[in-house]
Amino acid sequence: MLDWTDRHCRYFHRLLSRRARLYTEMLTTGAVIHGDRDRLMGFDPFEQPVALQLGGSSPDDLARTAKIAEGFGYSEVNLNVGCPSDRVQNGAFGACLMLRPGLVADCVKAMKDAVALPVTVKCRIGVDDQDPEHALFEIAAHCVEAGADALFVHARKAWLKGLSPKENRDIPPLDYPLVHRLKRAFPDVPMAINGGLTTLAQMQEQLQIMDGVMVGRAAYHDPGLLLSVDAALFDAPARFDDAFTAVEAFLPYIERELARGEKLSNITRHLLGLFAGLPGARSFRRRLALEAVRPGAGPEVLLAAVGEVTAAMARLNGADAA
């Protein structure tokens, strides 16, 4: 979720769900060690529980970065062994590490030795010409032996040669049964499944076998999905009845961030899919996208965009009544 699940996104998603665990966009060890840590890693305590996802392949650097994450107060550090983007391929980490399970184990052990935080791993079922039945079980065994606290498995191969990162999210076929077999082989290891899950019904079905589900783009493109997560998956009351009240609750945060010099568009870009499927959703997206980037844009822009939805719904209800 590079460039997507930043702190503004996570704050809004936490408003929608009290219980879901949130993950940062992947940060490289180099960025954490040498970059502006407050800007890259800072988060609002309201976001908790929130985990830092790391990209790297040096056990020493990952241990050092995990220690920094612990100091920032993160609830978990997650090693990404599944991202197929060009950036991670050039850096020899992400999905490339599926080819080096021994190194992944060394990385996990180094982080476990450095921090008291849970250390988890997100992987694919294989890359390129690997046999997934062998590759997935091998890397899982190495991670478990090294002390990994949980595994998150994207149930697709990653093709590092021939497919773009976007194509890698859709073209390689999903193999849920393979991930289920992995869970049965390691019954005591917490495992979540990732990939292709877009509805609560699908997630509930997976939770009959798996310990958790990890959802990225489905929740990002349709944040309203998170409004129902607490009730459907955690047997807990929903925080809001609808997206309209969630927007109202988000306004104080927006005002605070604008007062600190943030641009409205950097916050509201994460809300574009909020009213997906409702009348006026297209007008909401268009108005917000066009007007939030203007100098001096404030909360009134968001409220006006929401007004497109309420007006469209009123027209529809009026037509139905007539």
Helix-strand blueprint:
Elements: H1 7-16, E1 22-23, E2 27-28, H2 29-34, H3 37-41, E3 50-55, H4 59-72, E4 76-81, H5 86-90, H6 101-114, E5 119-123, H7 132-146, E6 150-154, H8 165-168, H9 176-185, E7 191-194, H10 200-206, E8 212-214, H11 217-221, H12 229-233, H13 243-259, H14 264-268, H15 281-291, H16 299-321
Parallel strand pairs: 1-3, 2-3, 3-4, 4-5, 5-6, 6-7, 7-8
Helix pairs in contact: 4-6, 6-7, 15-16
Could you characterize the architecture of this molecule?
Catalyzes the synthesis of 5,6-dihydrouridine (D), a modified base found in the D-loop of most tRNAs, via the reduction of the C5-C6 double bond in target uridines. Specifically modifies U20 and U20a in tRNAs. This protein has 322 residues and is of the alpha/beta class. It has 2 domains: 7-232, TIM Barrel (Alpha-Beta Barrel), CATH 3.20.20; 243-321, Four Helix Bundle (Hemerythrin (Met), subunit A) (Up-down Bundle), CATH 1.20.120. Helix content is 48%, strand content 10%. It is built from 16 helices and 8 strands. It has helices spanning 7-16, 29-34, 37-41, 59-72, 86-90, 101-114, 132-146, 165-168, 176-185, 200-206, 217-221, 229-233, 243-259, 264-268, 281-291, 299-321, and strands spanning 22-23, 27-28, 50-55, 76-81, 119-123, 150-154, 191-194, 212-214. Strands 1, 2, 3, 4, 5, 6, 7 and 8 form an 8-stranded parallel beta sheet that branches. α4 packs parallel to α6 (101-114), α6 runs parallel beside α7 (132-146) and α15 (281-291) packs antiparallel against α16 (299-321). It starts with 6 loop residues before the first helix and ends with a helix.
